[in-house]
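Q: Hi! First time doing this. I have a protein sequence and I read that you can turn it into a structure. Is that right? Here it is:
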Amino acid sequence: MTVCSPTSVLSLCPVTGMAAAAGSAWAETIEAPGLGGPSSVRAELTGGDGLTDPQFRSRFLQANLPAWFAFKDALRENANIDFKIDYLSLGQWSNADVGQGHAAGGIARIYGTWQAFENGGLTAKVEHRTAYTNVAPQFFGFDSGAQSITGTAFNDIQLALTNLFWTQRAENRAWTLQAGQIDVTDFVDVYGLVSPYSAFQNLAFNTNPTINAPNPGLAIAGGVRLHENIYAIASIADANGNPAEPNFDVFKTGETFKSFEIGYMSSQDRIYFDNIHLTFWQSDGADDGSRRDDWGVAGSAAWFFDNRWMPFLRAGFSQGEAALYKTTVSAGLGLYTRQTDLLGVGLNWSDPGDAFDEDQYTAEIFYRLTVSPNLAITPSVQLIANPALNPAEDSLAIFGLRGRIAL
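A: Yes, that's right. Below is the predicted 3D structure, encoded as structure tokens:
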């Protein structure tokens, strides 16, 4: 997942899946005390949101394509290769008196892991993101008059390599190291409802919009368990990452994004479900002036009660003007059902920066209907008060419909 800032060349936003509870298959195979969180490939490969004994409404696709799923099972068991193909589509409509009034786009992905050794393996993800309309959903908020990314991840960058990295971990899972083509927002300041593919669509409730995180690029990151309930994560990445044209330019420019996070967890297998943390970050400016130096601090608290309720409180501050917001505070709740449906409600206050006269307020509510482990449909409504780019309007509403099918 990638934080989208107005100055980002690609504005590539995250793409993640959601896993959420103790006892989940994903939690049992988590790669590290801090890496491989809800927005990682490994999390996407595990269905059911991690809920204990999920009761899906149907087995659509598994029952219709038994040979395909048998092939995948055999590949996982005999070659330690696990992969998935999926397609996501998002349509949005607004009542704004400016802009196009509608936006739509889709994302095709293939991603997987190869566990080459007991404690080491390769992760890869290739995507194709396209807009069906003149405006991609990722920029629909701006087009409708708000300083807001209302369709996170649904842009028009076409073919992109967002993951290609090696993971090495300790035998006792006390530390993990990753190096290669990495999306730092897979683990920087994440929480259980971070995914724009399965949870909130507005960036205000995804990765913190005060963090000027780069697009996927060359990076090295590590996580370590400092104590039974304490962990730390650090990363250094190419500040000019470009997944559409992967390169080694960071060795020429030396322009990097750095992050450090320290957090409290109830236990290692619930690291992103019962989690309180602080994240510190710094991003170098670009020599061409397209991005200024910036740094900031973000905090997050989310707890998963009774494997059903997940309230959260998140805040962030950036020193400069490179990120989407200068200051932000978000709060909300996720409610899961046994059928792995998810109801989400979020409220956000943001200071969009000195160039704007008023603060902006955002609310989002969505309901993800899980038809089967391979099909989900999510209607949503976003309400934005004091839209910063259209001060003549008091508010605007954006209605959305997201779908996902996976093989």
